[in-house]
């Protein structure tokens, strides 16, 4: 996605989703400056079953479901967003406080018991530019994201959507919702990516959908109007808020993602040399390893859920196709300007997601950093961005954003277009 909020199917054990600030302050949690727990002893407050968690922010409740189980005698937590399952296994207990690391993301849920089958704590994002803590509660036994008693109206189908932020700036989107009874799942596609798996319910003329992937907590609400349109609000984490309107439109589509970003006039190649995630090395597209091969450059950050969706596609794809004369270079733009910290985040992503292609530390996670480090680009709009180089090293295509598995048929088209581009470049 764009940095508007700084910021598939079964990702069991694959981290879309971890930790580092000082003094996480919920329920006696004790962390070092690097985010590692001390004195990890004591009984966990987590008991097996399905739980309904709630993030309390902006005067709203952002609920989500998660399952607690045991694996090898150790507790695991699996976040549920529609059909997505995100398994978390980095869980430690110190005193009465349990810390649930949120995969590759530098974040955690820090919780303690709050009575029988109840939890209380905090969602912490350790790498945020300022202290980021959101109150969290959970109750065991719930099976729905939102309780429903009334009869639902239909919001099923494809919608032409316009979002507006609090400064009045607007941007287009496509809403794709699948409704079964009162249950609804789907997502919003934008020109810079999608809002991933959304899950919720419809009660009467009101629809509510949420997602929590460890990096983002989103709440979408809307009321169906007499003319069949939708009008509602979008809440993101501690401060993000936008309004949105939608009209039914089975033919709704966005601008061509291959035409959003281009090269500056007269430029055909990208000239860079970035440090490898393994200290002491460096990566450049002119290295002998890449000569005469088709090369894919993935501009990403380990903090970015859409980037993780793309990585979850690219990592196995690379293993299946590298023998064809294709290489991938991941250019990581992390939140920390410290090389060692940034490299550690990318290495954790590499390990958890089985990334076999090369990764470099390219800069910090903002558009200006990308523009400065890749000055041949005419612009930069969003993480992730994918750049295709032909066998001569020339830039042949720049694709902004990534439509992930939560988008259904759009994800299938995304993969098909990627393969078509690779096949064409290999055939030359």
TrEMBL record:
InterPro entries: Redoxin, Thioredoxin-like_sf, Thioredoxin_domain, Thioredoxin_ResA/DsbE_sf. SUPFAM superfamilies: Thioredoxin-like. Residues 263-427 form the Thioredoxin domain. Pfam families: Redoxin (PF08534). This is Thioredoxin domain-containing protein. It comes from Hymenobacter koreensis.
């Amino acid at each position: 996605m764009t940095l508007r909020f700084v910021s598939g199917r079964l990702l069991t054990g694959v981290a879309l989703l971890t930790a580092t600030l000082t003094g996480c302050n919920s329920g006696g949690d004790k962390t070092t400056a690097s985010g590692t727990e001390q004195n990890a002893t004591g009984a966990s407050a987590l008991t097996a079953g399905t739980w309904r968690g709630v993030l309390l922010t902006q005067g709203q409740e952002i609920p989500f479901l998660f399952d607690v189980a045991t694996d090898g005698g150790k507790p695991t937590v699996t976040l549920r967003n529609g059909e997505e399952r995100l398994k978390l296994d980095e869980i430690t207990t110190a005193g009465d406080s349990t810390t649930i690391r949120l995969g590759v993301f530098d974040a955690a849920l820090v919780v303690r018991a709050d009575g029988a089958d109840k939890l209380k704590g905090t969602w912490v994002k350790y790498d945020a530019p300022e202290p980021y803590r959101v109150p969290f509660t959970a109750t065991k036994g719930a099976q729905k994201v939102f309780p429903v008693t009334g009869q639902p109206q239909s919001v099923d189908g494809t919608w032409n959507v316009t979002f507006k932020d609090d400064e009045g700036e607007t941007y287009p989107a496509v809403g794709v919702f699948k409704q079964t009874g009162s249950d609804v799942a789907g997502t919003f596609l934008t020109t810079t990516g999608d809002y991933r798996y959304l899950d919720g319910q419809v009660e009467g003329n009101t629809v509510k959908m949420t997602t929590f992937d460890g990096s983002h907590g989103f709440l979408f609400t809307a009321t169906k109007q007499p003319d069949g349109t939708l009008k509602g609000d979008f809440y993101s984490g501690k401060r993000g808020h936008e309004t949105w309107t939608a009209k039914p439109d089975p033919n709704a589509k966005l601008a061509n993602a291959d035409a959003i970003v281009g090269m500056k006039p007269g430029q055909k190649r990208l000239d860079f040399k970035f440090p490898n995630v393994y200290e002491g090395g460096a990566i450049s597209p002119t290295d002998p390893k890449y000569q005469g091969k088709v090369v894919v450059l993935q501009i990403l950050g380990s903090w970015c859920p859409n980037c993780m969706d793309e990585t979850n596609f690219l990592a196995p794809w690379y293993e299946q196709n590298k023998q064809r004369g294709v290489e991938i270079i991941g250019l990581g733009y992390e939140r920390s300007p410290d090389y060692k910290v940034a490299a550690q985040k990318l290495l954790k992503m590499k390990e958890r997601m089985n990334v076999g292609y090369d990764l470099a530390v390219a800069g910090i996670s903002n558009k200006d950093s990308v523009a400065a480090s890749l000055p041949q680009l005419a612009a930069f709009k969003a993480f992730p961005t994918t750049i295709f180089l032909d066998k001569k090293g020339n830039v042949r295509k720049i694709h902004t954003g990534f439509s992930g598995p939560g988008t259904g048929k759009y994800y299938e088209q995304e993969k098909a277009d990627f393969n078509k581009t690779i096949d064409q470049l290999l055939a030359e």
